[in-house]
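Next up, a chain.

===
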Amino acid sequence: MLLVLNLKMNLSKDSIMAYEKLIHNKEVIVLPQYPYLAFFQTGLYTLGSQDVSKFAKGNFTGEVCAKALRDLNVKYVLVGHSERREHFNETLKDIKAKIQNVIDNEMVPILAVNQSYEDYQNDHELKNIENQLEAIPEFIKYIVVAYEPTWLIGTNREIDIANIQRVLIKIKEYLVERNINHSIIYGGGVNPENVEMLKSIPGNDGFIVSSSALDHDNLIRLYAMLKN
């Protein structure tokens, strides 16, 4: 199963180097901050990026283009994360442009598909899930879709297995209908106590984790459970 480690805007230079040693011989996809990408070059892990510019090149101060990521051996790029949508007002058009830049540079996009608590309660036909999938360009060969119910991230709410199954089926049907090769992974309240239950859900190809990725003990336990 895929295990994606989204480190977000965390860890200092010293702690990131210690982290690289921790995962050096582990088959994971690690997403550090831009300045630390160069520290993850020699391990068994696969390197990913937390984001990419919607622009292919040009005079866009502060942006990082897909080609620059590829030149640092980045293989996966996360796009459409709920925090990008919320804090940076990213639109469907922005996300689609980012995915196109990723595939144009022969990397794999990880599209985050988010679900709010309001949608969980009211969007019974999963229209907002389908709408987010419209960011996937035509003729794409392969994509990873990460379903993240934002209402479970950093909360004590109980995980709804039936809802996860329903959403994963919806995503798979959408991708199969369009002949898109894919992996579908889950993120939201994942920890060593519930990962066995979550990994048994049909159609779940792995996990994207943040809090559990930063806790070394939890990460080691999660990794062992997934590999067994």
